[in-house]
Amino acid sequence: MAEGPDGGVWAWVMVGALFVSSGFVFGLMRSLGVFFVEFVQYFEESAQAISWITSIAVAAQQFFSPMGAALCNAYDARIVVMTGGCLAGLGFILASQATCLAHLYLTMGVITGLGWGLVFTPMVVSVMGYFTRRSALALGLGFSSIGLSSFIFNPLFQLLVEKYAWRGALLIMGGLSLNIVPCGALIRRQKQSKAPAKVGKLSVFVERPFLTFCAAITLFNAGYFVPYVHLVALSRHVGFSEYQAAFIMSVTGATDILGRVVSGWSAARGCMRMVHILILWTSLTGVFIILLPLSSMSGSYPVLLTVSLLYGFCGGALTSVVFPVVPQIVGVERMMGASGLVQLIESIGGLLGAPLSGFLKDVTGNYLASFVVAGSFLLLGCLILTTLPRFFQCRDPPPSSETFLG
């Protein structure tokens, strides 16, 4: 490692770079719900058809993450991330000129998603390379910008849509995405481990712990992004104004920040196993997703707002501990390749989750079934995680050079 096992000056510079880049990746991704109703009205398409825009973007980001990891192994991670930032911005800029949904699928979906895929995994692994014991805290701080950007971007883009229409707002989003480029320029080449000849063999595919983890994360992914696609539409469906709906997403982003920091801090204390912390936050997130449409039935804005706050906190908390679990599953040496493969596999859930919710809304006429099914995906994923070897032990097994749980 370049600066020591748990920090160094440049380690925290990289945490800052992750803070900015993840804010512009996932903050913008989460803000796409502001455009949902606009696209439904402009293109006169169903909720299911519009939902594919965000789903393709999410799935593309995860599907192309292994390519980002592979390119980092072959070339310089700095160049990969900077290229990803350019592609992310280009996708939004081209989307501002779209004349049909297919154009949005290609631009906002594939091109922007490809750019995000080249940014996220290289940035995460670059940061984790500087930390061991405090990796969850570092990621929690780095990812806290996702909640902050969600808090800022949702009302901002609602204002931009009203002032410049959706085309102008997308053009501005493209310009904002280019801020990822200088974040990539901060990456330094780190020393590579000489052990991982097995990484090239992709031997993780024959290891049950890795496959179990991937199955659970895929289910998490199928439900996790549904509120970011449909919560604004749900709020407007039950009678709240555009700005009230956007504000709900904003405050969800605010508690997301707190959840990430609290989760990372508690994980760094080592009071619980990382995988147990992951299940705790994920199960609570699933429950609150189910409660979102139920709370809206009362017609009370404070009730929906309260449940959204709790959902944001728990949803943010779970993301801080997903990637620190990966080296415990496959070993530190295979972390880069395995992190990319996890995102490749979980992209299936990201691709299908929001369109399924849109389909359920089209069939039932409301969002109850959409959110109940989404929350159930997270709870089912938690049950699958309990089948990991040695899951019920209170302490992690002694680490080996290959796998911590297998």
Automatic annotation (TrEMBL):
UniProt cross-references to Pfam families, sorted A to Z: MFS_1
GO cellular component, one term: plasma membrane
Matches recorded under InterPro entries: MFS (IPR011701), MFS_dom (IPR020846), MFS_MCT_13 (IPR048233), MFS_trans_sf (IPR036259), Proton-linked_MCT (IPR050327)
Keywords noted in UniProt: Cell membrane, Golgi apparatus, Membrane, Symport, Transmembrane, Transmembrane helix, Transport
Superkingdom of origin: Eukaryota
Membrane-spanning parts: 9-29, 49-72, 79-98, 104-125, 137-157, 169-188, 209-231, 243-262, 274-295, 301-326, 366-388
Domain Major facilitator superfamily (MFS) profile: 11-393
Chief location: membrane
Subcellular location: Cell membrane; Golgi apparatus membrane
GO MF terms held by the record: monocarboxylic acid transmembrane transporter activity; symporter activity
Annotated membrane topology: Multi-pass membrane protein
Family the entry assigns: Belongs to the major facilitator superfamily. Monocarboxylate porter (TC 2.A.1.13) family.
Function per UniProt: Proton-linked monocarboxylate transporter. May catalyze the transport of monocarboxylates across the plasma membrane.
Protein name in UniProt: Monocarboxylate transporter 13
Organism per entry: Myripristis murdjan (pinecone soldierfish)
Lineage of origin: Eukaryota, Metazoa, Chordata, Craniata, Vertebrata
